[in-house]
Amino acid sequence: MPLLLERGYNGTQSGGREDLSNLIANVDARSTPFTSMAKKGKKPGNALMSWQMDAMETPGVGGYVDGTDVSMVEGSSGVGQGEAASAKNVLFVNPAKNRVLASNYVQMFRRTFRISSLANEIQVVAGVKSELANGIAKKLVELKRDMEMTFLNDGDAQADAGGTTPYLTKALGSFLDADGETGTCPQQVDSNFYCTAREATATTSNLTEANVQDVLKTLFENTGTIRDYDLLLGTTLKRAFTNFTQSTLSATVGASPIKTFSQDAASKSFINAIDVFEGDFGRLRLHPSTFIARAGSIVQTVGYVIPFDQAEIRYGKLPQIKELTDNGGGPARLIEAVAALIVNNPKGVGYFNGAS
């Protein structure tokens, strides 16, 4: 029997070379659709940014007597040209009476890391040429994910008060909340511009095609435009859309299977997915997201119907890498960005806010 055995290298025998692959497996490759698709607005000129929202007067059908002079008095609220209380004259009105101010704060985003001098200069790590460069690359991705989740959260805006109270930007869920704010904040949306294209079914599994059609119908009534929208939605809500092709809901019998489809008999592929929903008043392009949140926690039952020409990110500072002081412990880096979310007018955005 040989005296030198393979198993000896795991115990008493020295010199066995370790077989360590250069592969580092990280399966987390989640995309950030909102920050990728949202347009980049102008650089903020202040920590508090403001913009204006406006609305047209209600159309009227009133007529006017020939030869009647215009009354030189100001009309009361709600009385405009074409809808005067009588057909004797036209009352002057304020053409900007529906105009209101909206605002939001910027927010600072940061990721930091430090590695020792030996880890950076001496240590040889399989699959990593430089721990410093690898750390920068990872933190840049993590910073973008922080921004994605912040914008798709439902947090209210917050002013910097020092201590542990930083500036916070108003998130999409707060803009689209039923009363224009999740809790209480100075940046509440004016009541005339609340998001009304909302669907808040108790259970996402009960979502029907009629619910989706109603959201598109309300958006059309608000905007007068039939168009394409991008729907960023959680995975549970995405499955609810796919289930439209599998069952029909009834108040008495619940969900009944109605799956019927045509397929090439020679095909070995089974396709069961909905990526585009086309309704009477528009089309939804579905983009699943794993960064939609409530109160900072990921939820899978929420969806935002976004016309991306009406939403933008304003960067006070694009993600930058800053070298921090090395006092002997090793190199450190700060990755930082400053940005704010702008929703031009919440009445032009839709919201699926399923409870579960």
Structure description:
- It contains six helices and 18 strands.
- The strands form six sheets. The chain has a six-stranded mixed sheet with strand order 7-18-15-8-12-11. Strands 1-16-17-6 form a four-stranded mixed sheet. It has a two-stranded antiparallel ribbon with strand order 2-5.
- β9 and β10 (254-257) form a beta hairpin.
- It is 16% helix and 27% strand.
- Mean pLDDT is 84; it is low at 77-88.
- The protein is an alpha/beta fold and 356 residues long.
- It has helices spanning 33-37, 117-121, 131-151, 172-175, 209-223, 235-242, and strands spanning 39-41, 48-53, 71-74, 91-92, 100-105, 107-114, 197-199, 227-233, 247-250, 254-257, 276-279, 282-288, 293-294, 297-298, 302-306, 311-324, 332-343, 350-353.
Give the topology.
Layout: H1 33-37, E1 39-41, E2 48-53, E3 71-74, E4 91-92, E5 100-105, E6 107-114, H2 117-121, H3 131-151, H4 172-175, E7 197-199, H5 209-223, E8 227-233, H6 235-242, E9 247-250, E10 254-257, E11 276-279, E12 282-288, E13 293-294, E14 297-298, E15 302-306, E16 311-324, E17 332-343, E18 350-353
Parallel strand pairs: 1-16, 3-4, 7-18, 8-12
Antiparallel strand pairs: 2-5, 6-17, 8-15, 9-10, 11-12, 13-14, 15-18, 16-17
